[in-house]
Amino acid sequence: MTTNMAYHLKRLHPQFHDDSSGSTSASAAAPRLTQKKIDLRPPLSEKRKKEITEKIAEFVALDMRPVRIVEGEGLKELLRTLEPGYTVPTRATVMDVVHTKYLSIRSDIYMAIQDCEAVSFTTDIWTSLQMEAYLTVTSHFITGDWRLESFVLETKKMEDSHTADHIARELTEIICEWDIPSSKIVSVVHDNAANMVACTNQLVQQPRWGKMKGVRCAGHTLQLCINSALKQDPICRTVAAARRLVSHFKKSAKATTALQEQQKQQNVPLHKLVQDVVTHWNSVYLMLDRLIEQKGPVSAVLTDESVSKRSDRDLELSTSQWRTAEDIVAVLKPMITLTELLSQENNASLSATVPMLMNIKKRHLVVHEDDSRTTKIIKTTLSDEMDRRWELKGPGLEISVYISAAVLDPRFKKRSFLSDDQRDEAYSVVAELAESLTDRSCQEESDTVDPGPTAPKQDAVMAMLLASDEDEEEQDETSEMKVYLKDFTKCNGGPLEWWKKNEDRYPKLSRVAKRFHSIPSTSTPSERIFSKAGFIANKSRSALFPTNVNKLVFLAHNFRRIRQPQV
């Protein structure tokens, strides 16, 4: 009887059969059987095993775990408890599944890009903990139902020096691999680094990139404006003193503990001090703002002889420095909100860039007689830097990509900061582009069908020759641009929602709107990849090939976006 049970286990429940001794006698088998808890569940099907393996691969990609996690005893023990009949796959098997998922999602994104009207890109270079440089390229486009999509296309290891020529070659190779037509390419958004600026200047000259525009990251440009203001005296000395003060608390466990006690005694929020980081936007503002909040507890700790040495007390800010810090925070606070608005990824923001800059100059950066010296210096420097870096006062503003995007945003189409001539020119630029896109679309359609007789072309020529001035005026009055400028339909849900509802009324302009509203105001989407990519390409994953880094970053960013249904 016992032998029959052992045979049954071996055949239908192999996970509970133990034949390590090689004995088949009843006396040998009996003890082993009594020591095991028999699971009456049927053995795992191949389908179920495949599902679990795929979920492990998704777990590795989405949570950015090292592939070698499948070799850990912790995961094996967990799966042994949840699914006793499942054997954890090898690293090679998991990477095979990751590769399959990569190809599947890549195919979906490829088709989405082929179906879209236009596509823009953000790009930047980041360095892993292994000091390996990678170039990440993210695509941005608007779907047929006016949903803004953002997908990582490629993360490539930069083997050579980061020259403009090398970056331009890599970017061109990427768009060629994705078969993106030059007619669809709208812009490349990048930071203000000299090599990136030179790179886009090269791309503009290449036919493969069509009429692409290079757009400097608004967030990075705004940060450069702020940095210029912070370099002025006495502002720079106050920031340096605050930096030293915060650094003291960061390095002293005793001072940090004392600060927490003072926070409780003074009923101040139990917040940690913030250390500014050169590469992080707005970090100086955050440092000063937090320091002002914690002024009481910080001062109490520094004057406590049981906690602070005599030399530490010299770190305390002077009265004038505290006042300067307060002035800096007061002026920079709206700039932080502006940066956050410009960095939005889920809605069009390029169209709002210049209007918001003009508003902040007009309503916040105007110098008043009762402003402190510090406030006047910051306001004047910020205003001058904005004018210089965005060329707000120079010729050609009306034909810039920022103004064209603003014209196609119902909230900003009546540009009050432009002269009448500049507004007319801005409207003309957009209207002409709308007509050229329509003509090109008609030409592409005609190229795909039998041209037929030439009579229609002759009719068009005759109509042009016999047209009257009255016909031209009537056509001008009924043009889409004229009607659009007189349209005061409310734009409550943002420009994309507005165009979704009004696309049928303005078929020509809507095509242009999809182009300009696909341009992000900042390169933040690519920079947000850095934290994911850096997590993937860290010390515990130093053996990863660059192709695997690309696949894992690709899946970590794109998997949920392409698989989750939109609401």
Automatic annotation (TrEMBL):
**Species in which this protein is naturally found:** Cirrhinus mrigala
Q: What is this protein called?
A: HAT C-terminal dimerisation domain-containing protein
Q: Which residues form the HAT C-terminal dimerisation domain?
A: 494-558
The family database entries (InterPro entries) matched by this protein are listed as: HATC_C_dom, RNaseH-like_sf, ZnF_BED_domain_contain
